[in-house]
Design brief:
By secondary structure, the protein is of the alpha/beta class. It has 11 helices and 7 strands. The protein folds into 2 domains: 56 residues, Orthogonal Bundle (Helicase, Ruva Protein, domain 3), CATH 1.10.8.10; 170 residues, 3-Layer(aba) Sandwich (Rossmann fold).
């Protein structure tokens, strides 16, 4: 029986669980095209796609009220007080596990990275989440061009509002970077705590994806422990990075700040 992909995409997109996120249609199409050839029936493929979507979307569930967050940011910036601005950003960063863990170490975290890469003029923040709200701790000038990509449309809208308030260009984009890797040339690309999740979505995808990013430095971070702290992940995640770049003439500098493993990968060229 022929499969009407657009109808399946419409059904997935209209699911109550995902409506507020506005997932890109390209993401849903990619997942369906992966699963349909592997499954005995379209219904079985849909079940597999829903399972993958759960892993992709889980970090977004329970997100803050983005309209209220925007009002809080506006108020902080109107005060003109850098302490109030950092405080408003910290409240939001504290609401997500990945950025919450980093919050006590932000100044040290960025200093360690930029000591290796140099301070960038152009940044790509890939699968960014709310990480760009860490900009007040980065020690970068407002002339930096900060590009950020995320699957979550309301989050992207908040980030562009933040960029405007911060005096940066509004360069946050709604899209699927695995389906359409950004082609903007950059000095540094951030890919924080996502490489292992990309492997869950499409095994082995990181190598091709990392190669497609046109950056001098690609900075990958991964947790050294599970969120509960009970599982040690350092060896597993180091192996993921080393296997992904095997045979490539990229230099690697490994750091660790606050239990977050940092892999600074230098490419020989932007190509």
């Amino acid at each position: 029986m022929p499969v009407d992909l657009d109808s399946w995409i419409d059904e997935l997109a209209s699911s109550r669980k995902y409506q507020g996120i506005h997932l890109p249609r390209e993401t849903l199409r990619d997942l369906l095209e992966q699963e349909l050839p592997r499954r005995r029936s379209p219904k079985e493929a849909i079940r597999a796609v829903r399972e993958k979507l759960h892993h992709i979307v889980a970090p977004y569930l329970g997100d803050p009220d983005y309209d209220a967050a925007a009002i809080d940011l506006e108020s902080a910036f109107q005060s003109g007080n850098p302490v109030e601005i950092q405080s408003a950003c910290a409240v939001l960063l504290n609401q997500h596990a990945s950025t919450r863990e980093r919050l006590p170490h932000l100044v040290e975290f960025y200093r360690a990275i930029f000591d290796v890469t140099g301070k960038p003029g152009v940044i790509l923040d890939l699968a960014c989440g709310i990480h760009p709200l860490g900009f007040p701790w980065m020690g970068l000038p407002h002339t930096v061009r900060y590009h950020a990509w995320d699957l979550h449309q309301p989050r992207v809208a908040l980030l562009n509002r933040f960029f405007r308030l911060q005096g940066l260009e509004e360069l946050a984009y709604h899209g699927d970077i695995l389906v359409n890797p950004p082609q903007t040339p950059a000095d540094v690309a951030f890919f924080f705590k996502e490489a292992h999740r990309f492997e869950q979505r499409r095994r082995g995808c990181n190598r091709e994806f990392w190669q497609a990013i046109r950056t001098r430095w690609l900075v990958i971070t991964l947790p050294a422990r599970s969120l509960t702290g009970h599982r040690l992940l350092a060896d597993q995640h180091r192996r993921l990075v080393l296997e992904t770049i095997r045979g490539l003439s990229w230099s690697l500098t490994e750091l660790e700040v606050g239990g977050e493993m940092i892999f600074c990968l230098q490419k020989p060229s932007l190509a």
